Every structure is written in structure tokens, then in C-alpha cells.
Predict the structure.
Amino acid sequence: MRIVTSCVAAALMVALAGCSGVNGSPATDPSSYVPTISDAELLTLGRAAVQCLREHGVADMPDPYVEDNRLKVPDDEMNAAEEKAGEQTWNAAEEACRETIEKIPEGALAKEEGGDPEPPGPEDVEALRKMAQCYRENGVPEWPDPDAQGRFPIKGTSLEGEKPEPGSRLDTARKACEQFWSGPVGIS
């Protein structure tokens, strides 16, 4: 049950698909990842998940916050809320809120003990190519294909400093293309 704190030391659920990372490859420099969702959208999704848990018996679920483009909750408060609710209530709340929780992109969840989500890797290249093509078709014509390691060669381009703020072209493309990829994006 501690995956919740691990995956969402930010808050949210053991039920989250694949909290251990996208592909099991070792994490690299956390600064090489770009968020796939704005902080405001991430916080809205986190609040919805927490509210759902509260409504289903986890009354002391702490409020989430966003730090470094990752959704988080205080570990000690998370542990206390889970313990107070009890395993049966926790599991039932988790199941009832699964759909809400799964809306949170996997890469946006902070991990316990300062770990970062694992980046995509070679086995994700095909999905990332589809995402890249979709970005190009949805207002970001200069979005490159991923390299063989699943990273996008963006450093040194005009895309490097661009943020996916609400309403931006990156945000619009992300929303249109998350059917292909909603996890973290590695850049090189």
C-alpha cells in the first residue's frame, strides 16, 4: 500500500498505473524531463483525486501541492491518513476513485525519498514517435522525433525554454496527443 506515498508522495494511489516508472530504466538527471501538463492542471487533478478519497472515507487525506512540476503531499500526513482510515477503507476509496486518479499523468507524480519518475526508454520510442507526429499536426511543427533512447533532441532549440502553460501551443498539443503518451518526456 505504500506505493501511494511512493508514487504520489504527492498523494494519490496505489491504483495508479505503473507508478514504478514508464519502463524500468534507470532515472537520469531530473532536469532533463519536461512536464506534460501545466502546474495548474496538475493541481486541479490532484485536488479532485484527494476530494474523491475524502468522500470515500479517507477524511484526513492531506491537500496536494505542486513542486518542481510534480504533484506531492506531505509523506507523514499521507501515512497518518492511510493508517487512520484503515486498509479496508483505504482500498475501497482507492478503487472508487481509480478513474479520477488515473487522469493524473504518471510522470507528474513525485516519488518518496526524492526519487523522480523514470524517463521513457527505447521500448517507448514507437509511442513517442506517434506523440511527436501528433504535436506537429497540432501546432508545434518543429517538434522532433525521439532518438533511439526515447529522448527528444530539444536542447538548444526554440522549444527548450517554452513552457506548457494553460492555453499555450504546447498545452494544446499535449491535450490533443496524450492518447499517444501522457508520461514524462525526456529531452537531450
Notes: The longest strand covers residues 65-67.
